[in-house]
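ok so for the tutorial part 2 we go from a plain amino acid sequence to predicted structure tokens. step 1 is just haveing the sequence, like this:
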Amino acid sequence: MTTVRLPLFPLNSVLFPGLVLPLNVFEERYRAMMRELLKTPEDEPRRFAVVAIRDGHEVAPSAPGMPDPTALPERGPLAGFGTDPAKAFHKVGCIADAATIRERTDGSFEVLATGTSRVKLLSVEASGPFLTAELEPLPEEPGDEAAPLAEGVLRSFRQYQKRLAGARERSLTTGTELPDEPGVVSYLVAAAMMLDTPTKQRLLQAPDTASRLRDELKLLRSETAIIRSLPSLPASDLTRGPTSLN
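step 2 — the prediction. this is what the tokens look like for a chain of 246 residues:
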């Protein structure tokens, strides 16, 4: 079994391969991570792993509060995640490649990364200034009938887009040509749909592309029906996630 150890960046969202991830990095543990990544030569990938938080806080508390107003804020790489990261994080995540890491004058960072491939979280190390993880790459198997399923998902996704545009009382012009490769379709649709984190996580860790596409087809039909009766939902950029505040 081939494994890799990378810096670990937990978020309250799911990163998919192909999705662009903007980050506003201001906590010291993640500043330290970016300083370390900047040591990587520019012609080599600056990689870190993103996992969705199952139980914890993306940003550690920075001041005393409820239930104990006298409690001191947590410090260190595990702050906000409890003592057992195995319970705090989902087991399947995504490697991110940081194309841009810009340090601001105040020491914070503006980062633009892209999801590349899925990984399974095997263990988490918290002895350094930031979290690192031992990771096992997860291959993307096509499964049965992935190509026709992708065609059906694209048809349903276009209807979903139209419903979203109608809910906003404007035409939807993303300027994005939709792909036809089943794996790319499955990740693009999973990232673009308005779904909660557990559902997106379920799609990320689907056993193969066909299984993900089948799940998405059901979700698209269900969500499109819901939008008909709730005509005030936000639209979505197809390739970019919201900027994460760590």
